[in-house]
Write a structure and sequence with these properties.
Chain A: Its EC number is 6.3.5.3, 3.5.1.2. Chain A: Keywords: ATP-binding, Cytoplasm, Glutamine amidotransferase, Hydrolase, Ligase, Nucleotide-binding, Purine biosynthesis. Chain A: It comes from Herbidospora solisilvae. Chain A: It is found in: Cytoplasm. The complex is a heterodimer of chains A (224) and B (751). Chain A has 5 helices and 11 strands, in the order βαββαβαββββαβββα. Chain A is α/β, with parallel strands linked by helices and 224 residues long. Chain A has one domain: Rossmann fold (3-Layer(aba) Sandwich). A 9-stranded mixed β-sheet of chain A has the order 2-1-3-4-11-10-9-6-7, with helices on both faces. In chain A, strands 5-8 form a two-stranded antiparallel sheet. The longest helix of chain A is centred in the last third of the chain and has 13 residues. Chain A is globular, with a radius of gyration of 16 Å. Chain B is α+β, with helices and mostly antiparallel strands and 751 residues long. Chain B is 36% helix and 23% strand. Chain B contains 27 helices and 29 strands. In chain B, α9 packs parallel to α11, α11 runs antiparallel to α14 and α23 packs antiparallel against α26. The chains are: A alpha/beta (224), B alpha+beta (751).
Chain lengths: 224, 751
């Protein structure tokens, strides 16, 4: 299983993403923003950071990167893609996922261990979770408040495309407590929390609840 | 404005030069004239004025700082000592760590956000220039009283600046301090620390050897930022017109700095760098004079080639600009193409602006005319050195006589505990630290509110050798102790940082320091400084931990009111197997709670005296370096043997606060009884060389044996478990109410 990890200028969590994939038994393949080349990977992880300095708007410049012109049609054709934090913002800017992520309601950057409820355990990245399961993952962002128009929200809710919701207190004021969503096909998932920071007992957030993301995709690719 | 060339300077010897406006004294100016044998040009004056400023030359502190060298303990770990951009320490398995703390106090008062942000940026570049990958930051912050209006302007700005810059760089923020005291209201302290890791055979130095090698300026373009900042802002006392100095504060771009980090690491990997220096205070002036002075001795620079953000800048301004995110490298002609290609990959502008020579002169041209022609060492290393007069402050004796012994002591210790744990300096720092990313890069083992930050060393660089090692870092300082006795105060800061590193299980190895004081022209302040340096140098010798570098910040004073003398000490330690680290606080129920170290009736400078009586007098707790060393040996040895489940250092607020914080760390209560016969002293005295540990009951005997061997007092206090902290016969408080008191304070002020 070869999973690409994209590095844009300003990407920060690429090392963590690659480590989490390796620990789950996948090969992490570095993908460079300026290449028109997905290197034949079986899935792609868009990690967090401040790509292009978050200038203009988070993710707004990255969506036009040469690599994204390859990734967007591939994702539309079914390639599994996971975007966390800045990666989620890029997926929204690229219109692979609906809605947008705006400044936190509290106006501050928030780094904390957050309880999250899994509401959809049938996407490419969540089959190793159970629906309704609560997990703990770190959140760390200044612009993670999910917003969308009423029609989009209603559709996401009606079709089960809200994958994760904040449990306990909502760290950023997201509508409907939304922490992560998926596309209609269930192959593209974006979320603000960071599963790649919760895969080892020694480091990162308490617990290893992030492992489920990577075991899910590895299982899917093995069975494909 | 006509160009002031060397030729013109020789022809117009009597032209009046604005040296006083640039912060230079008459005798200093006369020395420049004597060195050059003529009056300096405007550009030369710019170079000398910034290089000879207090900030760059350490002219008032040098004679004292030499003790860090002369008294330095023998250390096999020290690879690079003072005088380089940062010290480098051998941490084993072929790895080295480089770390340094630096102040950005004055800019952070004028413009809190940018001042603090560029403080982080500057120290990170120091670490990069040693050839290392920066792996974490910490910051030691001091503000005016929590109830003072300007604190509500300065603190949120400083925190946001550190948060924005550090988070964008992808460096975990793993600890530090936040302290409130009215003495800092006009002079907040922002001390930023960065640590980096490198292979020990790949250290880079700031040097420009090899005539014919090229000088490359790379990173951000040069603008009008901070012109005069080094000499005007960092060295002058604030008066009422400080608002007018706003444009002199530098503005940072963390995105460019992140690109610079990755770009530099790729340059090092490709081995295309002969020497490298970051551009900090004094910008191009500092980088060219220092590189040339430490290299073959000469350099030519064509200033017209410096890429500008503001095309109207004059050569004098280019030389003084403190634009951020710039580096200077010396590269062999054959490696230029490879160097520029790597910069292009990372979208980092890079320009060849000069060449190394063996003439012994630094020569700069503008429009083809020579505007600078100086021996670089005279600017970089041969600045003025002052033996400033000093004497004990007039009121010092009375201050020491005003002991806390006469203060009324409380009978209701539960109320005292709840009051202290909610006080400005002991309450939860989460409002601040939750704005910092502590997880990025995935190697953070411990971060705030743990006593020290702890990082895993492996997986730092792709392809690098694996190791089980970890590094621990802590910073501490106590201006109240240092006010009462600066010699002891500096030693107490070292003791606490040393202890904080040891409670994680790591062995303390080396020291960095940031010495924050008032005006060196005030003999009473100078006495505080001299005493603090003497104390720190003596203590480093006793504990066997050398000072590897640091920074002095003078002029932290408004009018005649100086801040409390505030030496901040950072200690770096190493743990052989990071998986054996000791967790912070009480991680589970059913563990024995043990107090290590002896408690005396010591309340001078204590948080209790401060909070309950607003009192500062007497003497600080007694320094006992031998006891600190023995305690550290017990802690590291016990961690190696796997005896400990959790630990916490005892410091401000004493055992009572340590117990409460240990309960709060994992939401686990404890039931304890006190060892002494005075519950108040047992709970709130700030005696040094003490720590709290918890362990499985079956390990208790092994620990007491270890303590007996090293003569470290050891008291079994009780057991963890339950929802409350119970001090038998004295007080009981639920963990929930402790948490409510602890966590409400900062949000109550800052929202």
């Amino acid at each position: 299983m070869r999973v690409g990890v994209v590095t844009f200028p300003g990407t920060l969590d690429d090392q963590d993403a690659a480590r989490a994939l390796r620990l789950a038994g996948a090969e992490a393949v570095p993908l460079w923003h300026a290449d028109h080349d997905l290197k034949g990977v079986d899935a792609v992880f868009l990690p967090g950071g401040f790509s292009y300095g978050d200038y203009l708007r988070c993710g707004a410049i990255s969506r036009f990167a040469p690599l994204m012109t390859e990734l967007i049609p591939a994702a539309q054709a079914g390639l599994p893609v996971l975007g966390t934090c800045n990666g989620f913002q890029i997926l929204c800017e690229a219109h692979l996922l609906p809605g947008a992520l705006v400044r936190n309601a509290g106006l501050h950057y928030v780094c904390r261990d957050q309880r999250i409820r899994v509401d959809n355990a049938s996407t490419a990245w969540t089959t190793d979770f159970a629906e309704g399961q609560e997990i703990t993952l770190p959140v760390k962002h200044g612009e993670g408040r999910y917003v969308a128009d009423a029609e989009t929200l209603a559709e996401l809710e009606a079709t089960g495309r809200v994958v994760f919701r904040y449990a306990g207190s909502n760290p950023n004021g997201s509508l409907n407590d939304i922490a992560g969503i998926t596309n209609e096909a269930g192959n593209v998932v974006g979320l603000m929390p960071h599963p790649e920071h919760a895969v080892e007992e020694l480091t990162g957030a308490p617990g290893v609840d992030g492992r489920g993301f990577f075991s899910s995709i590895v299982r899917k690719l093995v069975n494909a | 404005m006509s160009l002031d060339t060397v030729k013109r300077a020789a022809q117009t010897p009597d032209e009046r030069m604005p040296f006083a406006e640039l912060g230079m004294k008459q005798d200093e100016y006369d020395r420049v004239v004597a060195i050059l044998g003529r009056r300096p040009t405007g550009s030369e004056l710019a170079i000398y004025s910034v290089m000879w400023s207090e900030h760059c030359s350490y002219k008032s502190s040098k004679v004292h700082l030499r003790q860090f060298g002369t008294k330095a303990p023998k250390s096999e770990a020290l690879l690079v000592g003072m005088g380089e951009n940062a010290g480098v320490v051998d941490i084993g398995d072929g790895w080295a760590a480089t770390f340094k703390i630096e102040s950005h106090n004055h800019p952070s008062y004028v413009e809190p956000h940018q001042g603090a942000a560029t403080g982080v940026g500057g120290i990170v570049r120091d670490i990069m220039s040693m050839g290392a990958r920066p792996v974490a930051v910490m910051d030691s912050l001091r503000f005016g009283g929590l109830d003072q209006g300007d604190t509500r302007r300065v603190l949120p700005g400083v925190v946001e600046g550190i948060s924005h810059y550090g988070n964008c760089l992808g460096l975990p923020n793993i600890g530090g301090e936040v302290v409130f005291d009215p003495c800092y209201i006009g002079n907040p302290l922002v001390n930023a620390l960065c640590v980096g890791l490198l292979r020990k055979d790949q250290i880079k130095l700031a040097t420009a050897p090899g005539p014919g090698n090229k000088v490359i300026l790379f990173g951000a373009r040069t603008g009008a930022d901070g012109i005069g900042g080094a000499s005007v802002l960092a060295s002058a006392t604030f008066e009422d017109e400080s608002q007018a100095k706003r444009p002199a504060v530098q503005v940072g771009d963390p995105f460019m700095e992140k690109l610079l980090i990755e770009c530099c690491l790729e340059l090092y990997q490709a081995d295309v760098v002969v020497g490298i220096q970051d551009l900090g205070a004094a910008g191009v002036s500092c980088a060219t004079t220092e590189l040339a002075a430490k290299g073959t001795g000469g350099m030519t620079v064509d200033l017209n080639l410096v890429p500008l953000r503001d095309p109207t800048l004059r050569p004098e301004e280019i030389l003084m600009s403190e634009s951020q995110e710039r580096m200077m490298a010396v590269v062999t002609p054959g490696d230029i193409d490879a160097f520029l290609a790597i910069c292009a990959k990372w979208d980092v502008p890079a320009t060849v602006i000069g060449e190394v020579t063996d003439t012994g002169r630094l020569v700069m041209t503008w429009d083809g005319e020579v505007i600078v022609d100086i021996p670089p060492g005279t600017a970089a290393d041969e600045g003025p050195v002052y033996e400033r007069p000093f004497h004990e402050p007039l009121g010092q004796h009375d201050l020491n006589l005003d002991t806390p012994d006469s203060l009324e002591r409380p009978s209701d210790l539960r109320t005292t505990l709840l009051q202290l744990i909610a006080s400005a300096n002991l309450s939860s720092r989460e409002w601040v630290t939750s704005q910092y990313d502590r997880y990025v890069r995935g190697n953070t083992v411990l971060a705030q509110p743990a006593d020290a930050g702890l990082l895993r060393v492996s997986e730092v660089m792709p392809g690098a050798e694996e190791t089980t090692r970890g590094i621990a870092l802590a910073t501490d300082g106590n201006g109240r102790y240092a006010k009462l006795d600066p010699y002891a105060g500096a030693q107490l800061a070292l003791s606490e940082a040393y202890r904080n590193v040891a409670v994680t299980g790591a062995t303390p190895l080396a020291v960095t320091n940031c010495l924050n004081f008032g005006s060196p022209e005030d003999p009473e302040v100078m006495w505080q400084f001299a005493e603090a340096v003497r104390g720190l140098a003596d203590a480093c010798k006793t504990l066997g931990v050398p000072v590897t570098g640091g920074n002095v910040s003078f002029y932290n004073q408004t009018g005649s009111a100086a801040i409390n003398p505030t030496p901040v000490v950072g200690v770096l330690g190493v743990i052989d197997d990071v998986a054996k680290r000791v967790r912070s606080g009480f991680p589970a129920a059913g563990l024995r709670v043990v107090l290590l170290g002896a408690t005396y009736d010591e309340f001078g400078g204590s948080e209790w005296a401060h909070v309950a009586h607003d009192h500062l007098g007497g003497l600080p707790p007694r320094v006992n370096l031998e006891a600190e060393r023995d305690l550290a040996t017990v802690l590291t040895e016990a961690s190696k043997q796997g005896l400990l489940e959790g630990s916490h250092d005892l410091s401000d607020g004493g055992l009572g606060i340590a117990l409460a914080e240990a309960c709060l760390a994992h939401g686990v209560g404890a039931t304890v009884s006190l060892p002494g016969d005075d519950a108040f002293v047992d709970l709130f005295s700030e005696s040094t060389a003490r720590a709290l540990v918890c362990l499985k009951p079956e390990h208790f005997e092994a620990l007491t044996d270890l303590c007996a061997r090293l003569d470290v007092p050891c008291y079994g206090l009780g057991e963890t478990g339950g929802d409350s902290l119970v001090v038998e016969g004295v007080l009981e408080a639920t963990v929930a109410e402790l948490r409510m008191s602890h966590e409400a304070t900062l949000p109550g002020v800052f929202g």
